[in-house]
Amino acid sequence: MTTPRPINRCLAALAAGTLSLGVVTAAQPPASAADPALASQDLAAAGVGSPYYRIPALAVSTKGTVLASYDARPTLGDLPSNIRIVLRRSTDNGKTWQEQQIVRQDPAPQGYGDPSLIVDRVTGRIFLFYAAGQNQGYGGGATGNDPDDPDVLQADYSYSDDDGLTWKHRRITPQIKDPAWGGMFAASGAGIQIKRGPYAGRLVQQYSVRYQGQNWAASAYSDDHGDTWQMGELAGPGTDENKSVELEDGRLMLNSRARPNRLVAYSSDGGESWQGLHADPNLIDPADNGSILRYNENAVPGTEQASWLLFSNNESTSSRTNLVVKQSCDNGRTWPIRKVVEPGFAAYSTLTRLPDGAFGLLWESQDYRRITFSKFDRDWLDGVCAPLTVTAPRDAVAGGTTTVSVKVTSQSAGDLDGTVTLTDLPAGWSAGTVQVPRLSAGQSTEVSVPLTVPSGTSTNAYPIRAVYRTDHGQSTTPIPTQIVVRGGATVWEDTTPRSYDGTELRDVSDQVGAVKDLAAGAVTIKFRTTATSGAAALLSSADPISQVRDLVVSLNSGKPYVEFRTGSSTYPVRIQSSVNAADGNDHELIFASSNGISSLILDGEVIGQTATQRFFRDVDAMTPVHTLNPTGLPNLTLGGNRAYVTPPAALTNRWLYTGTIHSIRITGS
Fold this sequence. Notes:
It is a single chain. By secondary structure, the chain is mainly beta. It has three domains: 40-381, 6 Propeller (Neuraminidase); 388-486, Sandwich (Immunoglobulin-like); 489-668, Jelly Rolls (Sandwich). Helix content is 3%, strand content 46%. The model is unreliable at 2-33 (pLDDT under 50).
């Protein structure tokens, strides 16, 4: 429900007053859907029937009708706004769609937004959950649960008993909202009905809740086919829009948007409570709404497909791009099957199983200008249940060959024969292809794949993937593996160990000339400390006049940190690690900035990264010639940030470092 950045464009039809709510008559595939095995069509287009559309929901009725719902919005903003809930129906597995219909609308300031569908497989009733708002949205929603309070974000749903043709409406805020909570809304997409076990038949709809200034997840559930509803305990904080899925063993798994990784928890009581909330390292996320479902909800426990899950989200930590579908063959522990739907812009997405056995994916495309429906089957996934574990080398050097260890584990019912290689390599890199011995179900083997890194490669971390190819399909690593490469020419180096007591620094500004023109490169610092001061600079290159233009590699409360700050106090590069390096052991910290990426690397492991590049030349380029600084050059210091301890006679503030710097090396690209 996060409001996206605004899109400024002239909607001529809106200005002319000619818009009407209707069908997108020329449903064209999105430009990026070039894969012929992925059939795509737009169900809604900005400016046709509504200025904007957002927030997809998708389900299939007991009669086999595919239901696609979403917001029709006057602007791209969330509630409060005069938003309408609309819906389209397909009776032929998503091939054609009936005209768009309005499920709920009222005059301003009333609005309804963020739909989520649940189908009761016993009664056939279709539930369409959403938030109802007048004066406030999620962020400003008032405490209390008065169903008539215009400042409370209300919990509403519409229901249909005639396969989605007509709808009635109901408000359940007093039943499910704790008065101590603020904003609360149904997490868009789809809820579930539990299939087996003691809670069979229970309807479960996930909610996002604002409480004590933080975001939480909770499950609204009904054991009487929607006559009454209850709310489970909060899961969080740090969760947001979330989904639940029934696992083979009867537990529910919660999967929530969060940056940089999705958050996962488990429930053994049908969503009444959640335990074990943790970040899933296999599912990176930019904090965007995704989807998860059983591959085959009718699969009998113990059979192969009973443990299969499908998942969709934006595979990025920083942007709403790179929409992927992933498959797990072990109830979400690993995700070896991965296909890209859209490498460019994509936002919210939701999945469903279609009556013909294929899958439907409804998603936001083309910079929020389209709601797109894509259909795919098992052949498009082209997967094999064989998760890979990659061990990155510690000795990757530019101009040399190293080996990458890849472990293959078969989860397939039959024997597998295949090869392993490395993909998504940077330009100029090359990898060998290695035959993997035949694997039976449950067997694992490990192979070494040769990797050649071209000379001239800068010190930095580079993402690669491993892929296992067989006649039955292929598997790959769910997220890229970072290979740390050491390269570049040494521009300046100091190998004399020095101790710092927190009252002094070493001024090496006379060496600025050697590094000032570096647009890219790396700083490698070997150090040891036990100090956990708020900020302690290992290296600083700072404008001595403005004191606000700098490149600083430091430890903040003992945790490696790097910043590049501009004259307007913005931070194009700012990486804060969660790793504590103030443990009295020797460490090697690298700040690398090249190829459009800045990385913090501690002892060979990437501990932070951002898709921005800044280095020494940027400090110098922003430093004007000044009468007090006629050269226009910045300071360069070790053990402190001189710009924050001037005059030199008063070295007393928090930027001074305590510990040992064994050596420092600066390399170019």
